[in-house]
Amino acid sequence: MADYLSLSDEALAALCKADDEKAWNTLCHRFLPTARHLASRVNHDFLEGQDLAAESMIGLLSAVYTFSPDEKASFSTYAYACMQNRLRNVLRAAQGKKQIPPSRLVPIDAEFDAPPVSSAEDALLSKQQVQQIRAIVATSLSERERTVFLQFANGSSYQQIADATGLTAKAVDAALQRARKKLRQQLL
Q: Which of 14, 30, 34, 92 is least enclosed, having the fewest CB within 10 Å?
């Protein structure tokens, strides 16, 4: 793990694209304070800070897969912009859904408030959690839910997912809510 801590953000992002779990853990822990900071700057009655931090981390995921080292921006600058854009999109979507009763919404209860990995035991637990989430996504979600969830995690909007899958935006929202609910039940 110590070797990964010395790697640059760009090197970690490249390893993440190759599904290196240690690189993912290191990069997530490195950008978690940024996600929390961005979430704390948002004042919104409808969304909780923890959910906003989780959405910001989805922006980081998108940054990993869309970053081009040939561009002039560093990965950290690009990731910050992706995380901010993700929050803006979520806020726009949430403002359009104010009429949905909160009892119908399923919150994302991700454990983003965990302290940074400080021991080998913590690193092993993080690795196991990543493997568990991947296994749940692969086995517990229907094909539609998995497709919608993965596209959403890669930064696609509801409308972009709807266009790509031939679903309506409402069907995309329903599939995403079911996926979140299943993930939440499996993780708790």
A: 92
Domain for residue 39, yes or no?
Answer: yes
Q: 26: burial class by Cβ within 10 Å (0-12, 13-18, 19+)? A: buried
Q: For 21-72, how does the pLDDT look when each residue is reduced to its tens digit (9 = 90+)? A: 898 889 988 998 888 888 888 766 556 777 788 888 888 888 888 888 887 8
Q: Tell me which amino acid residue 152 is.
A: F
Place of tokens 């950290």: 76
Q: What is the CATH number of the domain that holds 78?
A: 1.10.1740.10
CA distance 57 to 105: 20
Q: What is the pTM of this model?
A: 0.51
Contact indicator for 53, 39 with CB cutoff of 8 Å: yes
Is position 65 within any domain?
Answer: yes
Q: Is 32 within the bounds of a domain?
A: yes
> Domain range spanning residue 40?
2-108
Counting the structural domains of the chain, the total is 1
